[in-house]
Specification:
The protein has 4 domains: 127 residues, 3-Layer(aba) Sandwich (GIY-YIG endonuclease), CATH 3.40.1440.60; 181 residues, P-loop containing nucleotide triphosphate hydrolases (Rossmann fold, 3-Layer(aba) Sandwich); 179 residues, Rossmann fold (3-Layer(aba) Sandwich); 96 residues, EIF_2_alpha (Alpha-Beta Plaits). 29% of the residues lie in helices and 22% in strands. It contains 18 helices and 29 strands. It has a 7-stranded parallel beta sheet with strand order 9-10-8-11-12-7-13, sandwiched between helices. Strands 5-2-1-4-3-6 form a 6-stranded mixed beta sheet. Strand 17 and strand 18 form a beta hairpin. Helix 5 packs parallel to helix 6 and helix 17 packs across helix 18. The chain starts with 9 loop residues before the first helix and ends in a 5-residue tail after the last strand.
């Protein structure tokens, strides 16, 4: 793929031919003629087939790649925003090459929606384009500095990390490993302040939207220069198109010096970038799961190296890939081994449930512990990573279960206040009312099996009627601002019992939370995905870290049928080092990442047979065998297999794993192989996706 690199001087301003990237599923770039100078990195409106599209100029070639008389001309040059700089285009070009996507499918979706719509520039309502319309609105004013806020004193470990990061010159990736509550955020803030004092910009990344309000407040209060409030922009998928465009404009113009954002912020243009911070670097939310399936964390490391600026990766439970980099000396590592508040870590207790009389999934020990915390006026968190009322509805008479008609998955029972209960598929979105009787035998005694957050909430309300209970999951936080409002109630002490999914597991500093109870953790122990135990350990370590951060005497109760499992034993000891050593040894023994590199080809078709046949054909393409690479490390292609959930929305799915011990060998193979897949897919009428470095297999 051609490199999208800048040319200087006359070449950059030359009239004639421009090479344009468009958001189309083709690996090609497209040449057009122009009668006016066009700078690389500028957006243009061009004809493409029978429609017009917004694209970006990525090169100004000396001659077109096709006969000159076949070229169409550029309709309009969009100069309402500055041209995107060479470093931004290099990032997009690298992402396209590494993740095997057309350059246009990287560049255009990375822009705010308004900047890639022809209708925003042409037509009666265009009025000069979205940027000029936005500029006519009132510019955002600086928030006043909160008064009386004094940063906490750093302990010795925090101070050492801050000083070491401040001394870095040029690029270096730093892994900041700190136990939960150890004050990693304080290290981030000091590093960011030092960067701002040098007149540079800071990119501060978090994995999820619900983590931004608390951090935004801290950043606005602390990241001030010479007594003036920090110029902060926020960017995440929950913003309106106008809000995202405004944040983009302020960052690109240098008006905002700090960008706080989720994974999409990695593609923001920062002309004075001086530091990248990736909080909770292990979190799978940094991996995009559709379109360009990029890892924002990995792109952050690449961007830091390309721009020659430091990158700080922080986590209480680093990914095994990052930990391995640190062990091998590729990353600097600093450890924060004690809590910043000098409060002891919570005691983790395993409750063996194999011989216990359980009540709605609760052991007597957990019930007693909740009652004790209520008596002590402390909050408790019940963690269950399953929303809804129950995972499935069942008929005891004939064995009928609530199966999704469009997926090989069960529909989940959801209870609605004031409305009839419903069955929902969490894979395809199918929605139906609960039948009044079994569809197969007519028995009216249908019963829920298992439990989700709604059922846990209901049981706790029956058990502790005087307690104030809140539930935080994807259902209770659908409305904009609802998650922030619920968390505010918890922080204000207006909640005694909190029931939540992974949304509550990370980043939140609950001042009065004394107990964390974990339900149904065993489900991830024996999952097909080899990364499931690592995710389970990280999830439980993170949620355990919510307990006792300020009140002391915190306790974590994990109910399990398998207390002897290494994951749980390491949790009891708060021993990330031990778990990482065990996990890496296990991975090395069987040749799994980070000791191998992978790509996953997934196919979708109306019939599973068609998807499998396509994958089989792809496996036989030229270059798909070790014999084709006699002088380089081999690339292994495994047999096609169906996905665990085979059918979603009436589409059957299968996958083929590609693996090599050498990243360059894998990339070389994928570059050739990907070019042939489109032809095979057309023959079999399948949709496919090639994902590099997949997180779920």
């Amino acid at each position: 793929m051609p490199q999208a690199e800048s040319k200087t001087g006359a070449a950059q301003q030359r009239k004639g031919v421009v090479r344009v990237a468009l958001d189309v599923p083709l690996l090609a770039l497209f040449d057009y003629t122009t009668d006016v100078p066009v700078q690389i990195g500028t957006r243009v409106i061009v004809p493409f087939g029978r429609r017009k599209m917004v694209g970006m100029v990525v090169a100004v070639p000396d001659a077109p790649a096709v006969p000159p008389d076949t070229l169409k001309s550029v309709d309009e040059v969009l100069d309402d925003t500055p041209a995107l700089p060479p470093d931004w285009l290099r990032l997009a070009s690298f992402a396209a090459q590494y993740y095997q996507r057309p350059l246009g499918e990287v560049i255009m979706p990375a822009l705010p929606a308004a900047l890639r719509k022809v209708s925003a520039y042409q037509g009666k309502r265009s009025a000069g384009g979205p940027v000029k319309r936005m500029d006519k609105r009132a510019r955002p004013t600086k928030d006043s500095m909160p008064t009386g806020i004094q940063p906490p004193a750093l302990n010795a470990e925090q101070a050492a990390a801050v000083q070491a990061i401040a001394k870095l010159s040029g690029h270096k990736t730093v892994l900041l490993h700190g136990i939960t509550g150890s004050g990693k955020t304080e290290v981030y803030l000091h590093a960011a302040q030092a960067t701002l004092r040098r007149g540079r910009q800071v990119l501060f990344m978090v994995p999820e939207i619900n983590l931004t309000p608390q951090l935004e407040q801290s950043l606005r209060a602390r990241l001030a220069v010479a007594g003036e409030p920090a110029d902060l922009a926020v960017m995440h998928s929950g913003l309106s198109d106008g809000e995202r465009l405004l944040a983009w404009m302020r960052i690109q113009r240098g008006e905002a010096r700090v960008l706080l954002g989720t994974r999409l912020s990695i593609f923001a243009p920062l002309p004075d970038l001086g530091l990248i911070i990736v909080d909770e670097e292990h979190d799978t939310s940094y991996k995009q799961q559709d379109g360009l399936r990029y890892s924002a964390r990995d792109l952050a490391v690449w961007r830091g190296r390309d721009c020659d600026v430091p990158v700080v990766l922080g986590s209480a439970t680093p990914s095994l890939e990052s930990w391995n980099h640190a062990e091998r000396g590729h990353y600097l590592r600093f450890s924060l081994s004690r809590r910043a508040t000098d409060v002891e870590l919570p005691a983790v207790r395993l409750v063996d449930t194999r011989r216990l009389a359980m009540q709605q999934g609760f052991s007597p020990q957990l019930i007693d512990a909740v009652a004790d915390r209520l008596a002590r006026k402390q909050q408790s968190l019940i963690f269950i990573n399953r929303r809804g009322y129950a995972p499935v509805l069942n008929c005891a008479s004939c064995g009928w279960v609530s199966q999704c008609p469009r997926c090989t998955a069960y529909t989940v029972l959801h209870r609605s206040a004031g409305r009839r209960n419903s069955l929902q598929c969490h894979h395809c979105g199918y929605h139906a009312q609960v039948p009044r009787a079994c569809p197969d035998c007519g028995d009216q005694d249908l019963k829920p099996m298992g439990r989700g957050t709604q059922r846990v909430e209901e049981y706790l309300a029956e058990l502790f009627p005087e307690a104030r209970i809140a539930r935080i999951d994807a259902d209770s936080t659908r409305l904009k601002g609802s998650a922030e409002a619920l968390f505010a109630k918890v922080h204000a002490g207006e909640v005694d019992l909190l029931v939540g999914t992974q949304m509550v597991a990370k980043g939140h500093d609950f001042a009065n939370l004394g107990l964390v109870g974990v339900l149904n953790a065993d489900a991830m122990l024996f999952a097909h995905d080899f990364r499931a135990p690592e995710r389970l350990f990280a999830q439980l370590m993170q949620v355990a870290g919510r307990a006792g951060r300020h009140v002391g005497g915190g306790e974590v109760i994990i109910q399990t049928d398998y207390p002897e499992q290494p994951v749980y034993q390491a949790l009891v000891r708060h021993d990330y080092h031990g778990y990482a050593r065990y996990g890496l040894e296990e991975r090395k023994a069987v040749g799994l990442p980070p000791y191998a590199y992978q790509a996953l080809l997934t196919a979708e078709a109306r019939e599973l047979k068609t998807a499998v046949e396509f994958l089989g054909r792809a496996r036989e393409l030229p270059g798909a065998h070790p014999d084709d690479y006699p002088s380089s490390p081999s690339v292994t292609l495994y047999d096609p297999v169906p996905l665990r959930v085979v059918r979603v929305a009436n589409v059957e799915r299968a996958q083929l794993l590609v693996e090599s011990v050498d990243r360059r060998a894998l990339q070389s193979f994928l570059t050739v192989w990907a070019g042939d897949l489109a032809h095979v897919a057309r023959d079999h009428r399948v949709r496919y996706n090639l994902e590099v470095d997949p997180l779920e297999i």
